[in-house]
Amino acid sequence: METRSNDITGGLSALGHGGSPVPAGDPGIDILEAFPNRFPGRDYVISIAFPEFTSLCPVTGQPDFGTIVLEYIPSELCVESKSFKLYMFAFRNHHSFMETITNKVLEDITTLLHPAWARVKGLFVPRGGTRIHVFAEEYGKLDAARLASVREVVREWKMESNPHRD
User: Fold this and answer.
1) pLDDT for residue 124 is more than 60
2) With left for phi above 0 and alpha for psi between -120 and 50, is residue 4 left, alpha or beta?
């Protein structure tokens, strides 16, 4: 199925189907959905910030709060945003360290999308007087010319002062 703007939506099941139930199980790649990138020859950044992230400490069970930011340059696929939201919700009752969560999100996104570049930032709210920020990134397997182009786009993106301002 295509929209009037030629976006292909046929394989999407989360978008437009009622409420947003929290997934019952642990977060996994099976929650995430993708759709074809209509501009695979153009290096552009997609950035999704999820400021209502919560998970549980694996030792104490106390809640951890934060913002998870996914930034990526798509190749053939883009992540569908509602499925990403549901994926984030699946962490609410999940016991894991912040470092593990940030790297798991990166692994699941790179497995699903095979992007030219992806970075996940876990910006966690201080607990016990300690603020933890975790950054994990990965470049795709690209030829030298494309890698150079992607690295330049990433360099410029990282210089943005506040890309998520309203």
Assistant:
1) yes
2) alpha
pLDDT at 9: 72
Active-site residue set = 57, 64
Decide: 12 and 80 in contact? Cβ < 8 Å: yes
Predicted local distance difference test score (pLDDT) of residue 96: 96
Q: Are strands 46-56 and 117-124 parallel, antiparallel or unpaired?
A: unpaired
How many other C-beta atoms are found inside a 10 Å radius of the C-beta of residue 51? Answer: 11
| Distance of alpha carbon 5 from alpha carbon 82, whole angstroms | 19
* Predicted model pTM: 0.86
Of residues 73, 69, 74, the one with CA closest to residue 50 = 69
Q: Could you tell me which of 84, 75, 91 has the C-alpha nearest to residue 124?
A: 91
Neighbour-count burial of 122, counting CB atoms closer than 10 A to its CB (0-12 exposed, 13-18 middle, 19+ buried): buried
How, if at all, do strands 117-124 and 63-73 pair? antiparallel
